[in-house]
């Protein structure tokens, strides 16, 4: 047994790879290994011989096993040291320049709007961009003869000839999400509905696709005073101007009664727009008290609940806040434009430290 111990300990000490070490383990301690074969011979010995040889063989097995483990650890440490020597990196060297990505102004403005209304207790609701004309028009009290329902203004999805399915459109506003939210969540309710919408228009201030956010608040005692406060707080927080001034003008929308368009005080000096000062006014959104027929279409009792709604273009308020002159540039995918107007993806808007800082 001493010869066997010296033989394997010497071979283990001279081994230079984990593969060779595994071969030695099998030769010594495997099922047909030399130590294992010796242990099988214990059954042929007398009780006196077993009492003498058994502990010695167990001690030999443990010693060889410990040597194998120690050698394997040493080989791993050696390989790691070699890698550290060959794969080192000088972290003081300047990094290689790579193109820097940025957040699109529409995404930034959407995050800012969400942060403001979330602080007021509004949750965010989403819905499909392809809608039935019932959700897009009928449920919102828009009559069949309304000009918004013509193909000059709305993109209709072509139906198979003879199909009985209801007409489908690319949604012209995110108001259908309000109906779906009322059906799903009931009342009382406070939601905003941001998303992309589609209309057949294209110029400096209009594109076939743009982004809107609409808000809905339903409760038993909601009033125009609540609407006025919410919109004033939103404008003050979004544009980050304390002396913001809004003007509510009577208007008409099929889904609200009474309805009001909202203007913001501004000035045009030397072609530069300044908000919160001057004698000019600029329209930024539409609003009003939700029409009872719309509340009823959402499955809620209009005799018990009333509320207000509003809608504004995210692209438009982003243009006003960040001085972007042309709406069409939002969709040009020009990297130079994105680098100039883009925002850091890690700069998450929060109210306590400022939305856009």
In which range does the helix fraction lie?
25-40%
Separation of termini?
78 Å
Give the mean pLDDT.
86
Poorly predicted residue ranges: none
Biggest beta sheet attributes: 8 strands, mixed
Strand content: 15-25%
The number of E-state strands comes to: 10
Helix-strand makeup class: alpha+beta
What string, H for helix and E for strand, traces the elements in order? HHHHHEEHEHEEHEEEEHEHH
Q: What's the shape? A: elongated
Rg (CA only):
37 Å
The total of helices stands at 11
Please describe what this structure looks like:
- This protein has eleven helices and ten strands.
- It is an alpha+beta fold and 357 residues long.
- The strands form two sheets. Strands 1, 4, 5, 6, 7, 8, 9 and 10 form an eight-stranded mixed β-sheet that branches. A two-stranded antiparallel sheet has the order 2-3.
- Strand 6 (246-253) and strand 7 form a beta hairpin.
- Helix 1 (2-14) runs parallel beside helix 4 and helix 2 (18-29) runs antiparallel to helix 4.
- It starts with a helix and ends in a 16-residue tail after the last helix.
Condensed summary:
By secondary structure, the chain is α+β, with helices and mostly antiparallel strands. It is built from 11 helices and 10 strands.
Q: Key terms for this structure?
A:
357 residues, two-stranded antiparallel ribbon, 8-stranded mixed beta sheet
Write the layout of secondary structure elements.
Blueprint: H1 2-14, H2 18-29, H3 34-40, H4 47-86, H5 105-119, E1 123-124, E2 130-132, H6 133-136, E3 168-170, H7 175-185, E4 189-198, E5 209-219, H8 224-239, E6 246-253, E7 256-269, E8 272-275, E9 280-290, H9 292-297, E10 306-313, H10 314-322, H11 335-341
Parallel strand pairs: 1-4
Antiparallel strand pairs: 2-3, 4-5, 5-10, 6-7, 7-8, 7-9, 9-10
Helix pairs in contact: 1-4, 2-4, 3-4, 5-10
């Amino acid at each position: 047994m001493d010869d066997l111990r010296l033989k394997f300990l010497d071979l283990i000490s001279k081994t230079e790879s984990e593969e060779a070490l595994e071969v030695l383990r099998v030769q010594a301690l495997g099922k047909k290994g030399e130590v294992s074969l010796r242990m099988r011979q214990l059954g042929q010995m007398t009780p006196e011989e077993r009492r003498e040889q058994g502990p010695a063989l167990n001690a030999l097995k443990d010693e060889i096993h410990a040597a194998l483990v120690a050698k394997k650890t040493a080989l791993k440490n050696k390989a790691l040291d070699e890698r550290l020597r060959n794969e080192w990196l000088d972290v003081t060297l300047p990094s290689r320049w790579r193109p820097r990505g940025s957040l699109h102004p529409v995404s930034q403005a959407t995050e800012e709007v969400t942060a403001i209304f979330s602080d007021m207790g509004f949750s965010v609701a989403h819905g499909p961009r392809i809608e039935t004309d019932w959700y897009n028009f009928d449920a919102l009290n828009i009559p069949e003869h309304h000009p918004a329902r013509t193909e000059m203004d709305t993109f209709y999805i072509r139906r198979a000839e003879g199909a009985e399915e209801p007409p489908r459109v690319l949604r012209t506003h995110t108001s259908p999400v309000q109906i779906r939210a009322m059906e799903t969540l009931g009342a009382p309710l406070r939601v905003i509905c941001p998303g992309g919408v589609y209309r057949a228009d294209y110029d400096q201030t209009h594109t076939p696709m743009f982004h809107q956010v609409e808000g809905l608040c339903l409760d038993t005692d909601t009033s125009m005073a609540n609407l006025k406060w919410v919109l004033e707080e939103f404008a003050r927080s979004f544009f980050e101007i304390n002396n913001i001034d809004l003007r509510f003008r009577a208007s008409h929308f099929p889904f609200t009664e009474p309805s009001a368009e909202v203007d913001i005080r501004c000035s045009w000096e030397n072609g530069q727009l300044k908000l919160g000062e001057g004698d000019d006014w600029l329209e930024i959104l539409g609003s009003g008290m939700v029409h009872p027929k719309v509340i009823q279409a959402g499955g809620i009792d209009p005799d018990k609940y009333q509320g207000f709604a509003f809608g504004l273009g995210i692209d438009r308020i982003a243009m006003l806040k960040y001085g972007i002159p042309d709406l069409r540039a939002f969709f040009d995918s020009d990297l130079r434009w994105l680098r100039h107007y883009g925002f850091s993806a890690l700069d998450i808007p929060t109210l306590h430290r400022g939305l856009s800082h």
